[in-house]
Specification:
Distance between the termini: 24 Å
Structural class: alpha/beta
Oligomer: single chain
CATH architecture: Alpha-Beta Barrel
Helix content: 40-55%
Strand order of the largest sheet: 7-6-5-4-3-2-1-8
Number of domains: 1
Largest sheet: 8 strands, parallel
Strand content: 5-15%
CATH superfamily: Aldolase class I
């Protein structure tokens, strides 16, 4: 579980999901520039962790760069299979991700749920596969605008997380990302108060399904139109421990400014 840093003992995590953008050469240039930009700004990676999530075809290039230059940037996969091997054309095994030193993997992103029909049960199986292979899952949950109107602000993500955590291995780290579908790419993020309300409810689910110790240690991220201009507001909330950034993570200066949100907090 995440420890050290801050009054909660949870190290904030700023994660950039590149989605289907940047080829392997572009990824090398991006990670180099990001590392240089943060180094020049004297960013303390022990206080705010930074991770990027390139397309699968970029991972070997990013791994080689990070290892060769000893860069303090984590990286992960955008998805993984619930199976470790076999006749599953186009799927990516957690074993393969682990062999590339990936620390994290995103599971259950709303685009996977929407475009690939992934169920909560399948996401639980993928979470189990991540833990089985020693990878930290970032489990995404969130509601659509219709869900919000019908069920309220936390009912759907709470239900999604409760099922997904059924695949968690005892004592292994999980990161949760609350991504309201209505906010992703819309330019209209949730308010910091809305994010806090749902993240607090999600932390209660972690306590319910796992235990209080896990709930206290689990990092819960907000995602959905996160920018340098609004990140500080989210990070002031007690149950928001970072951000899963989409479009803004493709802009080095913007993403590095999000990472350095503490400057906006006056800390």
């Amino acid at each position: 579980m995440a420890v050290a840093g801050g009054t909660t003992g949870r190290i904030p995590l700023i994660a950039g999901n590149w989605k289907m953008n940047l080829d392997h050469l572009q990824s090398i240039a991006f990670v180099q520039k990001l590392a240089w930009t943060l180094k020049d700004a004297r960013h303390d990676f022990a206080k705010v962790e930074v991770a990027v999530f390139p397309p699968f075809t970029d991972l070997r290039s990013v791994q080689t760069l990070v290892n060769a230059d000893d860069l303090p940037i984590a990286f992960g996969g955008q998805d993984l299979s619930e199976f470790d091997s076999g006749a599953y054309t186009g799927e990516i095994s957690g074993q393969f991700l682990k062999a590339l030193d990936t620390k994290y993997v995103i599971i259950g992103h709303s685009e996977r749920r929407q475009y690939h029909g992934e169920s909560d049960e399948q996401i639980a199986a993928k979470l189990a596969a991540a833990h089985r292979n020693g990878i930290v899952p970032i489990v995404c949950v969130g509601e659509t605008a219709a869900d919000l109107e019908t069920h309220g602000p936390s009912a759907v993500p709470v239900s999604q997380l409760r099922v997904a955590l059924g695949g968690a291995a005892k004592g292994q780290e999980v990161v949760v990302a609350y991504e309201p579908v209505w906010a992703i790419g819309s330019g209209q993020p949730a308010t910091s108060e809305q994010a806090q309300q749902v993240c607090a409810a999600l932390r209660a689910v972690v306590a319910e399904v796992l235990d209080d110790e896990a709930a206290a240690a689990t990092r819960i991220l907000y995602g959905g139109s996160v920018k340098a201009a609004n990140i500080a507001g989210f990070m002031r909330e007690p149950d928001v421990d970072g951000a899963l950034v989409g479009g803004a993570s493709l802009l080095v200066d913007e993403f590095s400014s999000i990472v350095r949100y503490q400057q906006h907090l006056g800390t």
